[in-house]
Amino acid sequence: MNIDPELDGIDHINIYSQSKTELGRFLSNFAYSPFDHPEDGNFVSVEGYWYWLGCKNDQLRTLYGAMAKKIGREYDAPDYIEDSEFKRKIKIAILIKIKNSNFLNMFKESTLPFLHYYNYKGKIVVPKEGVWVIEYIENLRKFLGEQK
User: Fold this and answer.
1) CA 117 – CA 5 distance, rounded (Å)
2) CA–CA separation, 93 vs 39, rounded Å?
3) pLDDT attached to residue 130
4) Crossing angle for the helix pair 65-74 and 46-55, nearest 10 degrees?
5) pLDDT of 128-138, one tens digit each?
6) Global confidence as pTM
7) Checking CA distances to 80, which of 49, 69, 108, 132 falls within 20 to 30 Å?
8) CA 12 from centre of chain
9) Average of per-residue pLDDT across 111-137
10) Does the pLDDT at position 122 exceed 90?
11) Residues near 42 by Cβ (< 8 Å), separated by ≥ 6?
């Protein structure tokens, strides 16, 4: 797939903290987007929760963005956990984050495909891990869009 980052917001939405679209930045796990997970409590970002699941350090409850990743790694939390329970909990967090946000209608009304890639000064990197997150967000948009 040939990705043109200049077309972010035109023919796709990049779910990335540096996305050209507000929705793409919000959907990034890095985004400051407080939520209360029914099983694990309060977090200020999905990224903080992601790493908290790997090490259970409560400092991660209050972190977002690159700092959540940095601190999570300092506590030896893995970047990716291939585990159905981990994925289930992350999906719940993403659902709550979106449903409780000011972005819900924008999300449901969006039609451009979601992608996830990094743009390092023109070098496009598509991570192999985490594809399931983008697939879930696409399916969630379809599901929520069908709700009245």
Assistant:
1) 9
2) 10
3) 86
4) 10
5) 888 999 999 99
6) 0.95
7) 108
8) 16
9) 93
10) no
11) 34, 35, 36, 61
> For the chain, how many residues are written?
148
List the Cα angle 27/13/35 in 5-degree steps. Answer: 5
Q: What is the pLDDT of residues 136-145, one digit of tens each?
A: 999 999 999 8
- The DSSP string of 91-125 is HHHHHHHHHTSTTHHHHHH--SPEE--EEETTEEE
Q: Residue 146 class from Cβ within 10 Å (0-12 exposed, 13-18 middle, 19+ buried)?
A: exposed
pLDDT digits (tens, 9 = 90+) for 55-75: 999 999 999 999 999 999 999
Cα separation, 34 vs 42, in Å, equals 7
DSSP-based three-state secondary structure for 60: helix
- The amino acid at 27: L
